Amino acid sequence: MTKIIGLLTTVILLSYSLIGLSREELDLNKLIAFTRDKYDEDAVKRMVAWRKIIAEKKGLPEKEKLQVVNRFFNYFEFVDDIKLWGQENYWATPIEFIGLRGGDCEDFSVAKYFTLLELGVPIDKLRLIYVKSITLNQFHMVLAYYPTKTAVPLILDNIDGEIKPAFKRKDLVPIISFNGKQLWINKQKGQGKTATSGKSLKDWDNLSNRYSLEAFKS
Hints:
This protein is an alpha+beta fold and 218 residues long. Helix content is 41%, strand content 19%. The protein has one domain (2-215): C8orf32 fold (Roll). Helix 3 packs antiparallel against helix 4, helix 4 packs across helix 7 and helix 5 (62-73) packs antiparallel against helix 8 (105-118). InterPro entries: Transglutaminase-like_Cys_pept (IPR010319). This is Transglutaminase-like cysteine peptidase. It comes from Psychrosphaera ytuae.
């Protein structure tokens, strides 16, 4: 458990500073220019498709938003960080993930998380969860959606593309879950014990700062 918490301290816990950024004010033309300069025309098409989802799907019921976002990102390619970034553990911003059309499980989950927040899904309903994948015999990350505070969450995953309630994902053993407000040490049953606040996990600032610079680059 200490190793997992230590890993988290080097990567992510979401901060309100980025959540509060007004994506409605994002200049799409500037984002396209940034994407074209850094990536390619295919990346521009993906970026436009992403922003179209943000612009057009806010009125959908929440569960339909989950389906749209999960389907969009699960078309992307799984690529290990070593191969893509030359690092054992690199947390890509959603824009980096979309630009390259690839990343590892954390990148899939983070991109879905941010997109659902932009679509108006409350932060209290979303958690990123580190799990042990029994099938893969390794650590993995998924995104969980809680319809209510005490509900069984729905799991969004890049390995199994079908959104399922957690009790149907017996191949996943939850370890730690977190969002922009709290970190939980998970139990086999129930919601888990609150462990700490987001302030104790500092390096999300690096990712959030890169993301905000990319998204609003002038």
